Amino acid sequence: MFGAMQSQPCGQRATARRVGFRIANVAVVIALAATGACAQGSDDAPNVVPELDAQPEVPTIEIGADDATPDGDASVDDTAPGGDATGDTTTDTAVIDSGSADTTAADTTAADTAKADTYVADTYVADTYVADTYVADTTAVDTGADTGAPWRHTITIDGTNDFTAASEKFTTTTSSFEAYVTWDASALYVGYVGSDVASSSATKWLFVYLDANPGTGVGATSSEQYAGQKVTFPSGFGADAYYAWRTDGLYPQAKKYASGVWSDVTAPGVTVNRSGSYVELRIPFAMLGVTVANVGVVSYFINEASSGQWTFAGLYSGSFTDGESLATAPKAVGSYLRVDLSSPAAPNATANKAP
Question: Would strands 178-183 and 169-171 be described as parallel, antiparallel, or unpaired?
Answer without folding.
Answer: antiparallel
